[in-house]
Specification:
- The protein has 302 residues and is α/β, with parallel strands linked by helices.
- It has eleven helices and ten strands.
- The protein has one domain: TIM Barrel.
- Strand 5, helix 7 and strand 6 form a beta-alpha-beta unit.
- The longest helix is centred in the N-terminal third of the chain and has 14 residues.
- It starts with a helix and ends with a helix.
Length: 302
Amino acid sequence: MKKLILLASLFCLGACSPDQLASPADNERESTNVLSNYPAVISLRKQLSCLPKEAAFVAAHRGVSKKENLAENSGTALKALIEHGVMIAEVDVAGLKDGTNILFHDGVWDEKSSGKGAVAASSWSRVKDYLLRDTDGDFSADRPIKLEDALSISKDLLYLEVDFKSSAKYGSVIKAIRKADMSDQVLLIAYTDGQARKLAKMAPEMMISVSAKSKNDIENLSRAGVKKSNMAVWMGKGPYPREFINYLDDQDIPVLAWPNEGQRRRIAGPATVMVTDYALQKNPIEGLSGSARSEYEACLAN
């Protein structure tokens, strides 16, 4: 069935008119962008490698889009991203004291839910009944979601950037990803070289987001066991030095960025993935048209 879906998507990509692929109007929203209909059985590594330099994927920060009455890191928000055609979501994984992994960003419940106290001191039997607040601070109908359920929702439909909160155990999270058969559909986030080395050792088959500012940083990570073929470089709000960007292009290493809204078109060049708080108000892929679209299609179909 997945192969049939992929073939149907490839046909539509070749046959659909440019009007069908146009950006949504300011006050209108397309249904799923046809370019995002590829099932995620295509590895994230291949997707990032195939994307032309002038285009960039949009990634939903905290697995949500603001001003949509959705709670961050919630099942409803992930489903809304999928329905809109967003291809990448950054999600936060926290660990409870009973070993349950959930999606939640803060270290305490108080601001983002009906719960109180430290997340790491909580058990699922109590947490499962908390109500999550949406991004405007109002209570939603959503409750915290287990990592395994988030993986089930996302499988073959949404790539995940996995941000480990301090309460999350690397081994437990990696085990859940492997159990869901999603090793090639995730990007593990490392903030330090030490974290990158540890994740590379524990999950050598998975991609890792690393913080680097120079060629030397990349070479040092490579010598420490982080494979270049698995790297993506987090450059945040910049700067984006041309010499370093060219080096990353030569090494086929994707660039992750979080530009200001006014910078988005300019940063779509050096960036492969652009993180945003407003994913549902964007095209799932920015800067992809004409010959660039054809190049992308041909690469994925290969």
